[in-house]
Structure formats: C-alpha cells, structure tokens
Specification:
By secondary structure, the protein is of the alpha+beta class. About 20% of the residues lie in helices and about 25% in strands.
Length: about 200
Amino acid sequence: MSEYGGKASGPPQNRVPRSRLEDYAEMTAPPREPSEGRPRPPAPEPAAARADVAAPAPPDVAAPSPAPTADGPEAEARRRWFADLLEEFRQTAVLVPLGDGPGPDSERGLLTSDLNGVRFILAFSDEQALSRYALARGEYHREWAYQTILGARLLDVAVPAAGVPCGVALDCADGPDGAVFPPVRGVVPDEVAVDREQGGAW
C-alpha cells in the first residue's frame, strides 16, 4: 500500500492540531476486543433456531448445504448493520492526518493510501487510535498534524475531490475493529461511485 497526501479534501482549517503521539504511547491500550469495539456484523443464525430450515437428515444421508443468497435473512441483517454503522460514521467527527502531498489551494492534502486501484482517506476515531497507527508504522516519535472532519463531509466532499475512485478507511490499525467505507452507491455520491453504471448498491 502506498501512502501520501493527495487532493482529497477542502482547505484545511486555520488552526491545525498537532499531536506528538509519543505522549500517548504509554496510555495506548491494544486494539479493543471485538466485543468491546463497534458492533460486529451479525453472526449467521443457527440452523436449529430457524423455522424455515428443514429437519436434519438421517445420519446416513448427507444433507445439502443451502447456498447463500443476496436476498436471504443473513444478507439483509448485514445490510442493516452496515447502514447503522455508516449513519453513525456520517454523524461523527474523526481525526484525519495530513499527508506530505499538496491539496486544494496549495495546502497539505489528507493522508491517503492506495489499494488495488482505489484510494482511501485514512481517518481515526481519536488520538489513541491514531497513536496505534503511528506505533504500527514506527513513527510515533514525530508530530502528526491532523484535521477534525465530520464523516459526512469526508464522504460527500473530500471523496469527490480526490478525482479517482476513493473511499474512507477508519481505524485501519485496529484490525476487525476498523471499518472501510468503499466508493459505491449508498456510501459516496452516485457520480463518483465505481458501481454507478451497474446501478448497484451496498
């Protein structure tokens, strides 16, 4: 993954906070256990608890496994879970480090990372999450300048300004407690969604 600052946001605010993350290193706990972090996707429902599943076949008969469908109850539960997560992110102010490259109006751009032809703006829930990212990179001794930006502004303004397929990665150093908001319809504006011609949705 290559990381740099690109033109992925509006002009930075006049006062840019700077965080010396070494100060947070000792108080930074490891990433939360999945049970303590943001809600996890719903687990598949046990077959025994579902009324629409046929009774188990006799031991000497192999019961075929039902193929998952895009319209099944498990898929619908995951869609609802992601919709709630997206709405929470849109209403939350997050920390977005500044990269080294230029942004609009010759200001520093936001920190981004490219993966498989898609650019992701890196955002963090708080300074401890940013500190874990800095620790993972071995760069917690230096100061990190960042902006505090509402999630909705990142998706509705910064993503279209990138000029390339672009989404947002939240708390990318926290493994399963992180989240990815890809550049698809329903997440970013339709005109910059990669699936706009197919009419797809998440």
